[in-house]
């Protein structure tokens, strides 16, 4: 029996032309599909953009979304990333109430623990950048909430399928190949 709450991570390679995002999101909305997360950006080819989005539902929902996307002329290719071994990231920018002194030190310790970065400092607040898997980002938000979140913004999920293990290329081996 399929899990109706499964989160499908889809990647659509689309032509980089005006109106594509509106067309795709409108099509999904008109058919009652909810987009849980969405990120869009240009690819290595400036003529193409990649839309990475999360759709919640069972396998039949996934199949319907794929079929509908593939009908759109500006869609080049649709992949279900969640069926592969992949790397995913979310990005968070958050302003925290942190006056100079002990509170600011505590918040900075949390930033270090979560491998984040302080990107701006004001007299009574600091802005922090955190990236990572959704669970890490959410855990950081919960840890800093008691200090007072003044403003928060998150990206949609981005993801990439890992290199084929049969090729034997990993981040470290490709870096070694570059040095050679």
TrEMBL record:
Lineage top rank: taxon: Bacteria
GO biological process terms on file: isoleucine biosynthetic process; L-valine biosynthetic process
GO cellular component annotations of the record: cytosol
Pathway: Amino-acid biosynthesis; L-valine biosynthesis; L-valine from pyruvate: step 1/4; Amino-acid biosynthesis; L-isoleucine biosynthesis; L-isoleucine from 2-oxobutanoate: step 1/4
UniProt keyword annotations, A-Z: Amino-acid biosynthesis, Branched-chain amino acid biosynthesis, Transferase
Domain ACT positions: 9-83
Listed EC numbers: 2.2.1.6
Protein role: Catalyzes the conversion of 2 pyruvate molecules into acetolactate in the first common step of the biosynthetic pathway of the branched-amino acids such as leucine, isoleucine, and valine.
Binding partners and assembly: Dimer of large and small chains.
Protein name in UniProt: Acetolactate synthase small subunit
Organism: Allorhodopirellula heiligendammensis
């Amino acid at each position: 029996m399929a899990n109706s709450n499964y989160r499908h991570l889809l990647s659509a390679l689309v032509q980089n032309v005006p109106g594509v995002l509106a067309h795709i999101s409108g099509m999904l909305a008109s058919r009652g599909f909810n987009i849980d997360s969405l990120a869009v950006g240009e690819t290595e080819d400036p003529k193409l953009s990649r839309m990475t989005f999360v759709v919640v539902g069972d396998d039949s929902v996934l199949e319907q979304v794929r079929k509908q996307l593939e009908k759109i002329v500006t869609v080049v290719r649709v992949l279900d990333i969640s069926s592969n071994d992949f790397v995913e990231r979310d990005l968070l920018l958050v302003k925290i109430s942190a006056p100079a002194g002990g509170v600011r030190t505590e918040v900075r310790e949390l930033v270090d623990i979560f491998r984040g970065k302080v990107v701006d400092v004001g007299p009574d607040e600091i802005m922090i950048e955190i990236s990572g898997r959704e669970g890490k980002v959410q855990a950081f938000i919960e840890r800093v909430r008691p200090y007072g979140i003044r403003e928060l913004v998150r990206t949609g999920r981005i993801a990439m399928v890992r290199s084929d293990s049969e090729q034997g290329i990993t981040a470290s081996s490709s870096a070694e190949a570059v040095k050679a």
